[in-house]
Amino acid sequence: MKTWKPVAAGILNILSAVLWIGSVLFIALLTLGLSVGFGSPIRGWGLVRVWTTFGVLMIPPAISVIGGIFSLRRRRWRLALAGAICAMPVFLGFASAILLILSKDEFQTTGKST
Length: 114
Description:
Elements lengths: L4 H33 L7 H13 L1 H15 L3 H10 L5 H11 L12
């Protein structure tokens, strides 16, 4: 029986990823803007460190979006749960993980027992 739980979990995953991406962009732009505003723009390896940190911080929301898509499609429960776990720094990830755990039986398996 299909319920609303996987759909709600997928939406919460994607929403938490959007919030995470927005906050990371805000912090990155604030860091770069303040460094220029105070007369000491970040150059050289400092700029590389800022962009590397930005890139690394964008990995969990990407996994969260992928997990949200699989949750909406009710496929690959483990990947959907991984997306919810990656969304946990934003509070919506906890609700998403709980909904996914409660709706595990609604996901399709691919021939293997999960």
